């Protein structure tokens, strides 16, 4: 399996944001901007599936923070568990050495959090803080897909390079069984390739306002809705 998974990493690109998609319904009034998004998140394609849900938490969180919003991770997991036959939830994120709060709150919401530490890297221009979880997310997805009996993958990112590379690699790992690959991303921070590459993605789902809440500067308030989601409930 190691050869397959290592091959999975070869084409991983850097995170980027492409043009904003045309599907808009509800206007965001929190910041008085023209940014718009749907009111409801349509996850019906995951009904009765065995879902491996893996989120690029940095991509989702940073895309929403500029609008004063954040993902309600408890609600997202509950929705997945109510639709799917089984769910294996994983969130991949970069963290500072002293900051364990963000990953801890994800775990409290029922997600298995994979932390990638940001590091101070010496360069010719001095120290530079580096942190990119793309390769780790791709490796984790390939390793889990190779051993998990999943029928669908929900890839939470709007990064076109990462999503395309993950989809290609996943198809190599799961050659003997069909796996539907769906993406979950933020309106205005979603690569057009997620909608255009129908050969790689079964659907491109945009997060709606039903899975969002206001972003609070007090980090302890950010994940205030913790009831009900168990780290093992409804999982593989």
Can you describe what's shown?
- The protein has 236 residues and is an alpha/beta fold.
- The protein has a domain at 2-11 and 38-90 and 119-216: Rossmann fold (3-Layer(aba) Sandwich), CATH 3.40.50.1010.
- The protein contains seven helices and twelve strands.
- The chain has helices spanning 2-8, 57-65, 73-83, 101-108, 134-147, 160-173, 193-196; strands spanning 26-27, 36-37, 50-56, 69-71, 86-95, 112-117, 119-123, 126-130, 152-156, 180-185, 203-206, 212-214.
- It has a six-stranded parallel beta sheet with strand order 6-5-3-9-10-11, sandwiched between helices. The chain has a two-stranded antiparallel ribbon with strand order 1-2. The chain has a two-stranded antiparallel sheet with strand order 4-12.
- Helix 7 links the parallel strand 10 and strand 11.
- Helix 1 runs antiparallel to helix 5 (134-147), helix 1 runs antiparallel to helix 6 (160-173) and helix 5 (134-147) packs parallel to helix 6.
- It is globular, with a radius of gyration of 17 Å.
- Would you count the extended β strands for me? 12
- In spatial order, strands of the major sheet run 6-5-3-9-10-11
Write down the overall geometry: globular
**Residue share in helices?**
25-40%
Low-confidence stretches: 1-33, 218-236
Specify the CATH class of the domain at 2-11 and 38-90 and 119-216.
Alpha Beta
The end-to-end distance, rounded to whole angstroms, is 20 Å
CATH superfamily of the domain at 2-11 and 38-90 and 119-216: 5'-nuclease
Summed up, the helix count is 7
The third-level CATH topology of the domain at 2-11 and 38-90 and 119-216 is Rossmann fold
Rounded to an integer, what's the Rg over CA atoms?
A: 17 Å
β-sheet strand percentage: 15-25%
Helix and strand sequence: HEEEHEHEHEEEHEHEHEE
What's the architecture of the domain at 2-11 and 38-90 and 119-216, going by CATH?
3-Layer(aba) Sandwich
Sheet with the most strands, sense and barrel status: 6 strands, parallel
Residue-averaged pLDDT, rounded?
A: 79
Structural category: alpha/beta
């Amino acid at each position: 399996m190691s050869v397959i998974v290592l091959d999975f990493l070869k084409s991983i690109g850097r995170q980027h944001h492409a043009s904003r998609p045309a599907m808009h319904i509800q206007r965001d009034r929190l910041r008085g901007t023209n940014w718009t998004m749907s009111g409801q998140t349509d996850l019906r394609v995951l009904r009765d599936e065995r879902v491996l849900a893996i989120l690029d938490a940095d991509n989702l969180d940073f895309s929403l923070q500029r609008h004063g919003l954040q993902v309600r991770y408890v609600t997202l997991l509950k929705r997945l568990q109510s639709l799917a036959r089984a769910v294996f939830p994983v969130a991949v994120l970069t963290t500072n050495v002293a900051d364990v709060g963000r990953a801890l709150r994800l775990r409290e919401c029922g997600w298995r959090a994979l932390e990638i530490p940001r590091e101070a890297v010496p360069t010719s221009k001095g120290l530079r803080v580096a942190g990119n979880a793309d390769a780790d997310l791709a490796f984790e997805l390939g390793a889990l897909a190779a051993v998990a009996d999943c029928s669908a993958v929900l890839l939470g990112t709007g990064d076109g390079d990462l999503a395309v590379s993950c989809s290609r690699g996943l198809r190599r790992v799961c050659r003997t069984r069909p796996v539907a690959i769906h993406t979950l991303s933020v309106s205005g921070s979603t690569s057009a390739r997620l909608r255009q590459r129908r050969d790689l993605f079964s659907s491109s789902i945009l997060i709606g306002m039903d899975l969002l809440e206001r972003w609070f500067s007090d980090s302890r308030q950010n994940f205030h809705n913790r009831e009900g989601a168990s780290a093992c409930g409804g999982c593989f």
